[in-house]
Amino acid sequence: MNLFRTKSIADMIRGTEQHALKKTLGSMDLVLLGIGCIIGTGIFVLTGVAAAKYAGPGIMLSFILSGLACGFAALAYAELAAMIPVAGSAYTFAYASLGEIIAFIVGWALVCEYTVGAAAVAAGWSGYAVGLFKTAGIILPKAWTAVPADGGILNVPAVLIVSFLTYLLVLGTKESAKLNKILVFIKLGCVALFLFLATPHVNPTNWDPFLPFGLGGVATGAAIVFFAYIGFDAVSTAAEECKNPNRDIPIGIVGSLVVCTVLYIAVAAVLTGVVPYSSLNNSEPVAFALRAIGMNFGSAVVALGAICGITTVLLVMMFGQTRVFLAMSRDGMIPQSLVKIHPTHGTPHVITIITGIVVCILSGLLPINIIAELCNLGTLFAFCIVSAGVWVLRKTQPNAHRPFRCPAVALTVPLAVLFCGYLISNLPPNTFIFFGIWYAIGMAVYFFYSRHHSTLAQHPTNISLDE
User: Do residues 277 and 212 lie in contact, with contact meaning Cβ atoms separated by under 8 Å?
Assistant: First the structure.
């Protein structure tokens, strides 16, 4: 049995007909979906920390470099998502270009990325919510706001927000998109308010020296803040629910990335212009900057923006996870009994509920912060695979219909792979130990179950390349 058998694009699209999802999303919904997942606590925390420790005011250049690196991968995602408008994101793209076992590895990585990431985000949401209650004079008992490892019994706020968003995702993609839209506008409003209040207080002398850590510091800063961009790939998981995926998906991916890059650079410029960069190494640099100019209500504004930001990130991560599971179950990689579309809401409710339960357990009982950063390896690996997949399909299927074409593919693809590979090489050693264990489990699942139950194993005539 060929481990690198690929599935034809036509069969992928036909395979969605039996368990079709409702097409309710437009280009603006997708742009907001991307912004919802990209802009979380990163814009409120990571910008200041990276400036203080790595790049100084040159953090603006770091965001430009990271934005360009993500842009290369985003262009690859846009081509494949428009070409293969099916749920599953990088997993689906790998199945069409690089083969079944690579697709399974990517899907397995995405499961870790979205599930562990969602649990960590839910724990973060709980922390901000508890802090906001504390500011209002309401002290919630630690027993019900902390995990057992931190001296509590159950992190109830995390469980509650995950349960609520799971209900919304079961209710319908359109309803979830409406909530995301409202929260994104609130979050962007908080960012805009910060820029409005702080910009008049910018002192250009705080930008001198502009590169206190040299160009090496800018490069290191770029590697750090790269993770603030992770999330635009979640847009491609919604390809099957787009009214016009050929046009809307590229707009959603590229549009959300451009908006977020501009906002990141603007916040970085104002932050380092209002106060000396060396003072920004704290957990609330935006609030700190506002207090430094006499805006004492800044902490409340930041808390509101952070809670809205974290809610949208959690919503989109859970949405993405369910769509990856849906694609894998359609292909027989996991039991196909999980592919059940709600007759009224048109959503994969069984998979969504299972995902919600797992995230509730992880966020409610485990100290997720210890392993939260480990999901980054799965993301970067997926970026590399998707970028390589564009090149492979250009060679193997040169005449396939491509509504959107990645420009300068001979340059874009190598740059995306090289930059993501460089970032992978700079991850901590424990990341690779964890993923070694995770992938060992995944390979056992593939060779003992998925390889024999996949739709290509059952119907080998659907293989698009000769074995």
Answer: yes
Contact call for residues 252 and 31 (beta carbons, < 8 A)? yes
- Return the domain boundaries, the chain: 22-451
**Contact at 8 Å (CB) between 394 and 79?**
no
Q: What is the pLDDT of residues 13-55, one digit of tens each?
A: 776 655 566 777 888 888 888 888 788 766 776 788 789 888 9
Taking the C-alpha atoms of residue 259 and residue 265, their distance in angstroms, rounded to an integer, is 10
State the Cα angle at 37 between 360 and 248, rounded to 5°. 125
* Pair 170, 315: CB distance under 8 Å: no
Q: Are 386 and 90 in contact (CB under 8 A)?
A: yes
Domain 22-451 = CATH 3.90.550.10: no
Give me the DSSP letters along 379-425: HHHHHHHHHHHHHHHHHH-TTS--SS--TTHHHHHHHHHHHHHHHHH
Helices 173-198 and 285-292 cross at an angle (nearest 10°) of 30
By three-state DSSP, how is residue 242 classified? strand
